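can u pls check wat happens w/ zinc ion
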Amino acid sequence: MKMSAPWRAVLSEAQNLIWPPLCPVSHQPVRAHGELAAEAWSRLRFVADPLCRTCGLPFDYPFGGADVTGRFCASCIARPPYYDRARAPLVYDEVSRDLVLPLKHADRRESVERFARWMWMSIGRQVQDGALILPVPLHWKRLMKRRYNQAGLLARAMARQAGLGFEPDLLLRRKATPSQAGQGARSRKRNVSGAFELTGKLEGQDILLVDDVLTTGATVNACASLLKRSGSGRVDVVTLCRVVRETDLTI
Ligand SMILES: [Zn+2]
């Protein structure tokens, strides 16, 4: 149903009376849902150069050491991932966690457009024309419980903004993997191995894979492995946040 502008304004006013817009980080009142208070902006840590050209790990963090060329992290040299490049605009920490968790567990979609713009800014220049945007899928049981896939919301908003194709059903999760929270790299990798399936052909198609947080990279790597084996072109990855320290693997 298409609503006229005056009705939309009335509805938005009524919504603001029932749920006054609060900054998701500082919980101070703001003008509209999805806005951040000035103080929250100064606390957010954006990923900045220099960073690993493959996985996007910034080098100014404790376990972010570069190799001798200064271009790749030690982990990407030792075990190159299947994806071509991963980027994220935000460092995952206690501040950005307050942005991601509501997106994961409640109906807080008002921030999605803003996050999608940040994500696109972090990788858009490097994405090929004609690339297809795919969200990292949830298993249908988890989707039923949560009612929506937060990666899907981000991916759809980004596809609309960038004018690229969006295919939420091409990549499916066939195995209901246990929650990854608090697990180390090895068990995350084991959990997602063989967890995904493709429902269509790729034939050289470039892909931009979208998720909310990059932790060890095991999930996006399992997806990228399947996409590449199935004949995709480039596989780039973009997430809203990325973990930069091993101690942050508690999500
Ligand atoms: Zn790396």
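The two ends are 38 Å apart (CA to CA).
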